[in-house]
Design goal:
heterodimer; A: Alpha-Beta Plaits; 41% helix; 15% strand; B: mainly alpha; Formate dehydrogenase/DMSO reductase fold; 17 helices
Chain lengths: 196, 484
């Protein structure tokens, strides 16, 4: 993937109230929002940008039932086949006594699995370096990066962002690769929706 | 455009002062970028000294054996397991605040959740020491894990509450750590992006995992937090339930009761909140965070303390009543003589527990006392002393008189190395906490920013003005100029 250079028009907003109509107008005008970087989770922004719902919780469920199955199958096999000890004549398949461990393993698998999946999907790991469009995106600015194609007139996009209320606008050239993220692929096309 | 969630103007602001997003970053991150104060060094030095004393005590115990402790023939679980249960209990507040209060949509949790979660992790680390070193031959500790081995097909006993404990505490520690750290990543990125020194650039660059604040990442982060909270909620209830099974599934009078799981969980939340109060009162003062951990926060936590303290009080009275009502002579003897009779060897500890846990928190029915820092601080310490004695009463007063009077043991009091081990875990806890308070954001910066515009004092004032103007306009337009 690496090698190519991509051009981005980057606009920084200092208020989410200004950001929302800007996102809407940019998408309406047909520009492609690469991503918006925010210092905290802005509710509804994913929806406004047309990003689809995450299915991370489904992964969590699958990891969870894997834990349940592992615990029941493991203990069941050990206590009925591999090492059937006699505890005062009680049944070998002693399901009620296994509930605590089964529950704990369900939670453990689900939590560990989800966090690892989250890190994998978001490319998060120690020593990872990514491209940051603006250092204050983790402090107090909402930073919108618009991807330019050959046909895009970046002066026009800059003017557009300034009109939309951006405090700072500039053009950045970045080497393409995983470090700039690839979330534009999941974006749906703009359509008029209520509430935004 | 109604982007902001509306919050009632009747509610006290969660963030005091005139703040904007940048000011929040400044206030919370500045202590990390400054040199530690002299008080920090003194506190850190004391903690490390205690830790070293603990290490030496454990060294004695491992080298010369469990005989270094004053345990005797009927008291096999003295201070050691008392301390284990006490620390695990303290470790319950963090997850309660971050998970259960998240699901209950309690806005005030944002000010205290980060530090409370850190406290949970350190408390569980301390708790884990006790059963591990109690094994005596600690180099065999890995035998508690079920793994295919060459000792014939020899497995751990999955029907034993002690093994359930291994899984419960292990899972609890892992999940708490993941929950805490995944919340910390965006805030570490905030520290990274304003770092000036080489050390900070490197350290926070590594620990922030390359976080950018991308909308898609935030969306996944929110989903992750919500599911982890959903998982941690039954987990936190299960951990102390399982710890209580260590006692409740036995046939020892005083332990063999079905009330233990809810009673232990309520007690755990009670002591955990007390410890959060102790720490937060100091932290907000030393790091100058009174705008974020307000009197409202302290008040809310004191309400939890009076609620859980009263639940614990109900449980004490219930088990006393049932011991009498159940007509089991051994059970009733354990309660009537070993505990409630002030003139038996451990009667004093029962009444000390009653006073600290049941009587004293009732002061918090008064709003004025709930909002008094000094009272809250002393109360938090009294509660933790009381909760330590609860576990001591349950363990020692139940086992020091066996079924056979000939086996009734002599008075048990701990040796210096038992006490040293306990002090050592305080050292471990506070060493970790001092490092955390110096190098990590003690308040969840991003979460505070997310509620700033609904719960910040300046924004609430603005909202009140707008509402007032609105209602005046409504009065003029609709009432005065109405056409009937």
């Amino acid at each position: 993937m690496a090698g190519g250079i991509k051009k981005f028009v980057v606009g920084s907003f200092d208020d989410e109230k200004v950001l929302f109509p800007a996102v809407k107008n940019v998408r309406k005008a047909g520009y492609k929002i690469h991503d918006v970087y925010t210092p905290f989770p802005v509710h509804g922004l994913d929806h406004a940008m047309g990003i689809r719902e995450t299915s991370l919780h489904t992964a969590g469920f699958i990891f969870g039932i894997t834990g349940t199955t592992t615990a029941l199958a493991g203990i069941g096999w050990i206590f009925t086949r591999d090492w059937p000890l006699n505890f005062g004549g009680k049944p070998h398949f002693d399901l009620p006594a296994w509930i605590p461990i089964t529950f704990e393993l369900t939670v453990l698998f689900s939590a560990v699995g989800m966090v690892l999946t989250f890190c994998y999907l978001c490319n998060l790991a120690p020593f990872i370096k990514k491209h940051h469009f603006h250092p204050r995106a983790t402090d107090d600015l909402f930073v919108m990066a618009i991807e330019c194609t050959d046909k895009t007139n970046d002066a026009e996009v800059q003017a557009f962002l300034q009109n939309a209320g951006a405090q700072e606008v500039n053009v950045q050239e970045v080497e393409t690769g995983w470090w700039i993220g690839t979330y534009d692929r999941t974006q749906k096309l703009y359509k008029e929706e209520k509430g935004y | 455009m109604s982007l902001l969630k509306y919050e009632s103007q009747q509610r006290e602001p969660l963030i005091d002062g005139n703040k904007d997003y940048h000011q929040v970053t400044e206030d919370i991150i500045r202590p990390i970028e400054m040199k530690p104060s002299r008080l920090w060094y003194i506190g850190f030095f004391i903690s490390v000294s205690l830790l070293l004393f603990g290490v030496y005590s454990v060294y004695r115990e491992v080298t010369y054996g469990i005989g270094q402790w004053n345990l005797n023939k009927t008291i096999g679980w003295g201070w050691d397991i008392t301390n284990f249960v006490w620390w695990v209990g303290i470790g319950h507040a963090g997850t309660l605040i971050s998970a259960i209060l998240l699901l209950f949509r309690q806005g005030w949790r944002t000010g205290v959740n980060r530090a409370a979660e850190a406290m949970t992790i350190f408390a569980v680390m301390c708790a884990g020491q006790f059963p591990i070193w109690h094994m005596g031959r600690v180099w065999m500790a890995f035998f508690v894990l079920p793994y295919p081995n060459t000792r014939g097909p020899l497995w751990v006993n999955f029907n034993s509450p002690l093994l359930w404990d291994v899984f419960a505490v292990g899972t609890y520690f892992t999940v708490s750590l993941l929950f805490w750290y995944s919340g910390l990543i965006p805030d570490l990125a905030t520290v990274r992006d304003r770092a000036k020194t080489k050390f900070r650039k490197f350290f926070y660059g590594v620990t922030a995992f390359g976080w950018t604040g991308s909308t898609k990442h935030w969306q996944r982060h929110e989903s992750l937090s919500l599911v982890l909270a959903g998982l941690a909620t039954p987990l936190v209830l299960s951990v102390h339930t399982i710890v209580s099974f260590d006692f409740a599934t036995s046939v020892v009078p005083g332990w063999h009761t079905t009330i233990f799981p809810p009673y232990f969980v309520a007690g755990a939340i009670f002591s955990g909140f007390a410890m959060v109060q102790t720490l937060m009162i100091v932290v907000r003062k030393v790091l100058n965070l009174q705008d974020y951990i307000t009197m409202g926060h302290i008040d809310a936590m004191n309400k939890v303390i009076v609620l859980t303290g009263s639940i614990v009080g109900c449980a004490y009275l219930t088990e006393l009543f049932i011991a009498w009502y159940g007509q089991n002579p051994y059970e009733w003897y354990a309660f009537k003589e070993n505990r409630a009779n002030l003139f038996t060897p451990y009667g004093w500890s029962y009444w000390l527990m009653m006073f600290c846990n049941v009587v004293s928190p009732q002061l918090f029915w008064s709003r004025k006392l709930r909002r008094n820092i000094t009272v809250t601080f002393f109360m938090s310490i009294i509660v933790n002393i009381g909760m330590w004695f609860e576990r001591f009463v349950i363990i020692v007063s139940s086992v020091y008189r066996d079924f056979l009077p000939s086996a009734w043991s002599t008075y048990y009091s701990p040796s210096i190395w038992e006490v040293g081990f306990y002090l050592g875990t305080f050292g471990l806890f506070f060493t970790c906490f001092f490092i955390f308070a110096k190098y990590f954001p003690v308040i969840a910066v991003a979460e505070i920013k997310a509620v700033l515009k609904t719960s910040g004092e300046n924004y609430k004032a603005k909202m009140t003005e707008m509402e007032k103007a609105d209602s005046e306009k409504f009065y003029i337009d609709e009432v005065l100029h109405a056409h009937h």
